[in-house]
Amino acid sequence: MELVKKQYRRVRQSKSAFQVGSFGLVGVINTVVDFAVFNVSTLALGVPVVPANIISTSVAQMGSFLMNRHLVFRHQKAKLQLRTVVNFLLVTMVGLYVIQGIVIYTLVHPLPLPGIAAISFLKSLGMENINHDAVIANVAKLIATVLSAVWNFVLYKKVVFGPKQQQ
Predict the structure, then answer these.
(1) What is the full per-residue pLDDT of the chain (167 aa) written as tens digits?
(2) What is the C-alpha separation between 114 and 116, in angstroms, rounded?
(3) Using alpha carbons only, what angle is made at residue 102 by residues 71 and 127, rounded to the nearest 5 degrees?
(4) Could you count the other beta carbons within 10 Å of the beta carbon of residue 127?
(5) Measuring CA to CA, how many Å separate 13 from each of 7, 76, 105?
């Protein structure tokens, strides 16, 4: 019996490691899309940072749903359940629009300290001609992305694509 328990623990650990790794890969892909749309919106089109974030994250979340459903959490339901889509949208919207919006606004306007630190670092590397506003916005977005990624992973695993949703 003890051997069965050890084997079960190993399988669960390897499944969790796979999920974390594949979630990270999906996250990298979505983050590249997100940052590309964010920077085109803010730098080329002049969209303010919070609306630009809403646009960029909306584009990225479409691919996120499909990749997380099929690759990361291997959601086995043959038929897509409305409940799964609604849960995904609610969790993702809180992460992207509430958490990221608050963090980006805070780190761009009243507390741009991480961005200012990044500017100082880049200048110490000899990069004098950098767009300060772009650095501050991108550092804020990076921090917001990390925080919302943690939120998303935990709630995707427990709520959206969790074992109860597989039934």
Answers:
(1) 676 566 656 656 677 788 888 989 998 999 999 999 999 999 999 999 999 999 998 999 888 888 888 888 876 555 678 888 899 999 999 998 899 999 999 999 999 999 999 999 999 999 999 999 999 999 999 999 999 999 999 999 899 987 665 55
(2) 5
(3) 85
(4) 11
(5) 10, 20, 38
Q: How far apart are CA 162 and CA 154, in angstroms?
A: 10
Residues contacting residue 26 through CB under 8 Å, at least 6 positions apart:
64, 67, 68, 71, 72
Of 62, 58, 84, the closest CA to residue 73 belongs to 84
Domain ranges of the chain: 2-166
| Residue 101 to residue 41: CA distance in whole angstroms | 16
Kindly list the distances between the CA atom of residue 125 and the CA atoms of 119, 122, 133, in Å, as whole numbers in the listed order: 10, 5, 18
| Amino acid type, 80 | L
Helix (H) or strand (E) run with residue 147 in it: helix 132-155
